[in-house]
Design goal:
The protein is of the alpha+beta class. The chain has one domain (about 10-140). Helix content is about 35%, strand content about 30%. The protein has helices spanning about 10-25, 80-85, 115-130, 130-140, and strands spanning about 35, 45-55, 60-70, 90-100, 105-110. Strands 1-2-3-4-5 form a five-stranded antiparallel beta sheet, covered by helices on one side. Helix 1 (about 10-25) runs parallel beside helix 3. The longest helix is centred in the first third of the chain and has 19 residues, at about 10-25. The radius of gyration is 18 Å and the shape is globular. The model has no long low-confidence stretch (mean pLDDT about 90).
Length: about 140
């Protein structure tokens, strides 16, 4: 999807975009829902997605999820990775934010920027109803 490197000024713009999505999520101007991942994101032994989160804003459907990927040991001639002390296999993850079509097919992938983790945390907080739970618990 988005294979080119982003320039520093573009990176600042994407950070601002994700920060705005976080703000709108926390203000509940964007409502997210959780769903099982589609088949193309699950069902493989070396990669999986547990939950996807969906929202619609300004006529665009957004999908957010954390993709887990198993990294196998590279061939012996790849000296840099082997000499770095990394133990294989290991799991890594990446947070993905996409614009999808009405069938859930990805149309565009947002660049990887730091605040995506904060967006995922805000979305999980909203979807899980933690605020309501805490309010009810503390009011007893």
């Amino acid at each position: 999807m988005s294979g080119r490197a982003i320039m520093p000024e573009e990176k600042d713009q994407w950070i601002d975009v994700i920060a705005k999505l976080i703000k709108l999520t926390q203000e509940e101007k964007i409502k997210w829902s959780s769903s099982a991942p589609p088949e193309n994101l699950s069902g493989e032994k070396d990669r999986y997605v547990e939950t996807t989160f969906l929202a619609e804003y300004k006529g665009k459907k957004l999908r957010l999820y954390q993709r887990h990927l198993k990294v196998e040991e590279p061939p012996p001639f790849v000296f840099v990775a082997v000499s770095s002390g990394i133990k294989f296999p290991y799991w890594t993850s990446r947070i993905m934010l996409e614009i999808v079509d009405s069938s859930g097919r990805p149309l565009w992938e947002f660049p990887q920027v730091g605040p995506l983790n904060d967006l995922l945390t805000s979305v999980k907080y909203q979807v899980s109803g933690v605020k309501d739970f805490i309010d009810k618990l503390l009011s007893e």
